From TrEMBL:
One GO MF term: nucleic acid binding
Coiled coil: none
UniProt-listed CDD domains: RNase_H_like
Taxonomic lineage from the root: Eukaryota, Viridiplantae, Streptophyta, Embryophyta, Tracheophyta
RNase H type-1 domain ranges (all copies): 160-283
Protein name per Swiss-Prot or TrEMBL: RNase H type-1 domain-containing protein
InterPro entries: RNase_H-like (IPR053151), RNase_H-like_dom_plant (IPR044730), RNaseH-like_sf (IPR012337), RNaseH_domain (IPR002156), RNaseH_sf (IPR036397)
Length: 313
């Protein structure tokens, strides 16, 4: 309803109310020293920029638009190429509008972090709702340029996965799980026989089933990151409840992911996936499981990689 009113130019922004003699000022309630037009509300408000920065810090880049018409063109394009991004943007604007109304009426309003977390919780699950693709990998990287690794949203987990293949067709699978504080929960490696890179990368993501603990199901959601675009795209498609692979009796089983409240997949550049790459290379020599609470048993080289990423958070 909000976006229908926006398309009809019927959203009661302060400028809209001021022109009709229903408000004494047209200025933005967030103190931007600018008129609160529809463009300002949906594109250029300083408070909105802060919300976008929070999303970027959690690994979700949102495009910026300079005008209402440019925004409409962007949403029209995303409807074909990246629907999840468009949906994410629309959800943010609506939650921002709700916070703005609370601000105008002197009520307690949501902080930028709460707004982004609320939006992420609203993203539908493909198995329980009609066809819904996961976060698209069409973004250049999904990470701000000054970040090696982005923490997930509060009460979310992030699994970084990778695979390493030797000439002997022995492949190592690596998994690293961290929380929204960047704390290591576990790191694991498993070796298998495989010669195809994409298949090995998919197997690395599927190995989460073997290391995930019951308490991880209580988190609001998980993000699975990998540096193989083909593997991430395959996982996104396979997790779609209407994908043709669900009609096959045999094949990879992703149903274990339904135990989590939310699942998002994201492609990242190789330099943002180094701890998982380290685990994958180590796994070529044998299976292992490192508990984040037992730092003494973890190689210092791996801990240095984690510290390096923490310094960039």
């Amino acid at each position: 309803m909000f976006w229908w009113r926006a398309l009809m130019n019927a959203v009661p922004t302060n400028l809209w109310l001021y022109r009709r003699g229903l408000r004494e000022t047209a200025e933005c309630p967030w103190g931007c020293n600018a008129e609160e037009s529809l463009t300002h509300l949906t594109c250029s408000c300083a408070k909105l920029s802060t919300i976008f920065e929070i999303a970027a810090n959690w690994g979700f880049q949102v495009p910026k638009f300079n005008s209402w018409n440019e925004l409409l063109d962007g949403l029209r394009s995303s409807a074909d190429d990246n629907p999840s991004m468009g949906r994410f943007y629309c959800y943010i604007i609506y939650q921002f509008w709700r916070a703005r109304n609370d601000k105008n009426h002197a009520r307690s309003c949501s902080t930028p972090s709460v707004i982004v977390a609320t939006v992420l919780s609203m993203m539908p699950r493909p198995y329980s709702l009609p066809a819904m693709e996961q976060w698209c990998t069409a973004q250049p990287s999904g990470l701000p340029p000054d970040k090696l690794w982005c923490t997930p949203p509060p009460n979310w987990l992030k699994f970084n996965v990778d695979a390493s293949i030797k000439e002997s067709a022995i492949a190592g699978l690596g998994v690293v799980a961290r929380d929204h504080m960047g704390r290591l929960l576990l790191a694991a490696g498993r070796h298998i026989e495989q010669w195809d890179v994409t298949t090995a990368e998919i197997s690395a993501a599927l190995s989460i089933r073997e290391v995930a603990t019951l308490d991880m199901m209580d988190y609001d959601g998980i993000i699975i990151e990998g540096d193989c675009r083909n593997a991430i795209q395959w996982l996104q498609a396979a997790f779609h409840r209407l994908h043709k692979m669900h009609h096959n009796i045999e094949g990879p089983d992703l149903t274990f992911l339904l135990d989590f409240k939310q699942v998002l997949f994201q492609f990242v550049p190789r330099e943002s996936n180094q701890p998982a790459d380290f685990c994958a290379r180590m796994a070529c020599f044998g299976d292992f499981l490192w508990d984040g609470g037992s730092v003494g048993a973890i190689p210092q080289t791996f801990l240095s990689l984690l510290r390096r990423e923490s310094d960039c958070m």
